[in-house]
Amino acid sequence: MSQRRSALITGITGQDGLYLAELLTGKGYEVHGLIRGQNNPKRALVESVAPGVVLHEGDLTDFASIARALKVSDPDEVYNLGAVSFVAHSFRSALHTSAVTGQGALNVLEAIRLHDPDNRVRFYQASSSEMFGKVQETPQTETTRFYPRSPYGAAKAFAHHMTVNYREAYGMHASSGILFNHESPRRGPEFVTRKITQAVARISLGLQDTLTLGNLDAARDWGYAGDYVEAMWLMLQQDVADDYVIATGETHTVREFLDLAFGHVGVRDWKPLVQVDPALLRPAEVHHLVGDATRAREALGWKATLLLPDLVPLMVESAIVELA
Ligand code: NDP
Ligand code: GDR
């Protein structure tokens, strides 16, 4: 009988960490997670989503804690999802973002190299479409040049290059998923999709009057997080490690998102309900992203199943249910 496979997930308390822990638990994996702080309030949430998960206290800036988690869990697969992930915040906290989102990934790579010199462990790095920043070509593919526009994007580009380097220099099975925006009812409330859908739910129930946003013209390739964690897993099941763009291939503006969200609760003209606050504009913006996931489709057999017109109602409905 084959031995039960095991995985260690950093960032297990985040949106993707929860979906991935759920996915891997469902596949029969022994799931381990690195969790920050001595009493992280999200511990119970992780345990309810992925029963049997084993949590190890640690921090991506603390090399020893990563080495310890690796030693105790001895995983077949490591998914590095932990990061300071909010782009707007990264401008206010550039050094910390660099330490967690950039150097943190290197800490994990180096800890794996020391723990497993025989390259048995397979590694996944959560790279991002934010690395494309001021886009040099449309749609963006695995070979599109990076031009990050934030401390977050720059830190992710560093982590991405280090992942490629550990693959090429040491023969590590290290893959990067260059994921475009993906959303869900588990998305953090600071991100625009969840901010909008939660506000629309509250406005529709008479609990809030208006919504304040920043740049309404930004365009994003928005997919569903449940689909995207499936792609992460598929990458680590390949014989050869590689980098993959994961995207829907469709782009929409924040305005279009507002049309769909307010439209779902019967509000056609949302303009009187939405204010723009210049304080929410970013020092440098990523204006337009759209990904070409051909490589993922051909090599992994992966395709986005839930597109924005179905995703937005799902998020609004979920926010309404939470308020009930
Ligand atoms: P979230 O912001 O929801 O989760 C981030 C996770 O990182 C949380 O578990 C958080 O823990 C953890 N974390 C933060 N700081 C540290 C630290 N110092 N040490 C250890 N863990 C830490 O992000 P998502 O789930 O949305 O994204 C997962 C990954 O994918 C991130 O790396 C993100 O940058 C990347 N990504 C996300 C995309 C998206 O659209 N969602 C697209 C492309 C890439 P805590 O709960 O304790 O704060
Ligand atoms: P993003 O996501 O920066 O693309 O990074 P976010 O939802 O924060 O912003 C998307 C776009 O919406 C515009 N916007 C606003 N954004 C927020 N958060 N709040 C607002 O009020 C608002 N108004 C307009 C932004 O300017 C931006 O153009 C996400 C994160 O998950 C990253 O970790 C990940 O790498 C990328 O997606 C791909």
Outline the structure in words.
Keywords: Lyase, NADP. It is an enzyme of class 4 (lyase). Catalyzes the conversion of GDP-D-mannose to GDP-4-dehydro-6-deoxy-D-mannose. It catalyses: GDP-alpha-D-mannose = GDP-4-dehydro-alpha-D-rhamnose + H2O. Its cofactor is NADP(+). The structure is a single chain. With 324 residues, this protein is α/β, with parallel strands linked by helices. It folds into two domains: 202 residues, 3-Layer(aba) Sandwich (Rossmann fold), CATH 3.40.50; 89 residues, UDP-galactose 4-epimerase, domain 1 (Alpha-Beta Complex), CATH 3.90.25. Helix content is 42%, strand content 16%. The chain contains eleven helices and 13 strands. The strands form four sheets. It has a seven-stranded parallel beta sheet, with helices on both faces. Strands 7-10 form a two-stranded parallel sheet. It has a two-stranded parallel sheet with strand order 8-13. Helix 1 crosses helix 8, helix 7 crosses helix 11 and helix 9 packs across helix 11. It is globular. The mean pLDDT is 98. Bound molecules: NADPH dihydro-nicotinamide-adenine-dinucleotide phosphate and guanosine-5'-diphosphate-rhamnose (GDR). Guanosine-5'-diphosphate-rhamnose binds next to helix 4 and helix 7.
